[in-house]
Amino acid sequence: MKKTKLKNGREIFCINSIEAQILHEHIDGYFDNFINFKNTDTIIDVGANIGIFGLELSSRYPNINIISFEPIVNIFSVLQANASISENNNFKVYNYGISDKVESIEFIYFPNAPALSSSNDEIWNSKDELIEAFGGSLENAPKKLWWKNFVPKFTYPYFAKRLIKNQTKINCTVKPLSMVIDSLSIEKIDLLKIDCEGNEQKVIDGIEINNWNIIKQLIIEINDIDNRLDYINNKLIKLGYTTRIIQESALQNTKLYNLFAKK
Length: 263
What we know:
Layout: E1 3-5, E2 11-13, H1 17-27, E3 42-46, H2 52-60, E4 65-69, H3 73-84, E5 91-94, E6 97-99, E7 103-109, H4 127-139, H5 156-163, E8 168-176, H6 177-183, E9 191-194, H7 200-205, E10 217-223, H8 228-238, E11 242-246, E12 256-262
Parallel strand pairs: 3-4, 3-9, 4-5, 6-8, 9-10
Antiparallel strand pairs: 1-2, 7-8, 10-12, 11-12
């Protein structure tokens, strides 16, 4: 299994080294004054990918409870390996996804860019949007990737096309979060993080009304297609949350936003 070293000096398992570096840079934005973390918190990580968020949380809060979900077995095996080196016995991982009902669905797995893998390829149906996302991510990549400044923009379409090359289809199980809350006897959720490439509305709609009482904070990456951003934002406001919407510099000119919410 491949390894890479993050900017904090920690060596982790990965599928794509550059993607792991960029994901680590991406989650820096989660740690601000709006969202609060404590060592006794319970974190639900929907779409955990290879576990970068869980690793960072474990390094900052050694005994924090992390419950991570990743449906694609190729990615899950790396998540499992990273959880094992986290030195956090409360870092739990599960090989299924979260949606609005129990079913087996087809995911598209991109071996060159695992973080793009999804059951819903609507984000990357637009070639222009994929190029914008690639260019933005590269231009805002960690400083240690010094060579990024020497990649000419006219080559972005070539590299963006390579990201989705050799894709494969994999059947995966998904379940509603409310069912998982019951089966795992989860009594509180201090943060629900959702990053599942276009399936975020189904995750939200799969939460039964009585379970919202235990969810204190949310971080959701939203692909704003069919007014999805307003739908989720308005639903959370009606449920009593204060929200904040941001778009990262790397994702300008795309439909991708981060929504932060807390009670």
